[in-house]
Amino acid sequence: MNDRILGIAALALAAFMTWAGWGIEAPFAYEPVGPRAFPLLLALIIGLCGLRLAYKGGNAVEPNPAGANGRIALMVVFAAAYAFLFQWLGFIIATALMTVFVGRLFGGGWAKCAIGGIVMSAFFFVLFDKVLDVVLPGGLLENLI
Questions:
Q1: Which residues form the DUF1468 domain (predicted)?
Q2: Rounded CA gap, 12 and 25, in Å?
């Protein structure tokens, strides 16, 4: 696999994201740009990067080091589990668990990952839910927060 194949795949992903994100509309206007702006902006960035890779690519890509493919597969499993458990567990617990497991994938110790996950999830919950007024699910901690 080389950079050009990855660039073409990124262009296809950007096209799909544009198609899927174009029809997103909120039932009421709560901000000037609306919910469609995020996926379209992300599609633009991915598309520009893909265009650059498709145009300037062609370099051979070295194979992943030993064990990397397994960690990549686990990362996909963790992301899927996070998406499925996010509403039920709530933002704080789901994000803390995700942070711990991803930190462990990258060689972090249990204590450092746990402390980092708890601090990060609590900080971002307060930032988004309380300061920026972005409603996040409380999940199992709903009655405590």
A1: 5-137
A2: 23
Q: Can you state the percent helix, strand and coil of the chain, rounding each to 5?
A: 70, 0, 30
Cα dihedral across residues 9, 10, 11, 13: positive or negative: positive
Geometric angle at alpha carbon 64, from 50 and 16, rounded to 5°: 25
pLDDT tens-digit readout, 84-129: 999 999 999 999 999 999 999 999 999 999 999 999 999 999 998 8
Phi–psi pair at 33, nearest 5 degrees: -90, -25
The C-alpha atoms of residue 145 and residue 138 are separated, in whole angstroms, by 7
Backbone CA torsion sign across 124, 127, 129, 132: negative
| CA dist., res. 49 & res. 56, Å (int) | 10
Question: Residue 121: exposed, middle, or buried by beta-carbon count in 10 A (0-12, 13-18, 19+)?
Answer: buried
Predicted structure pTM score = 0.66
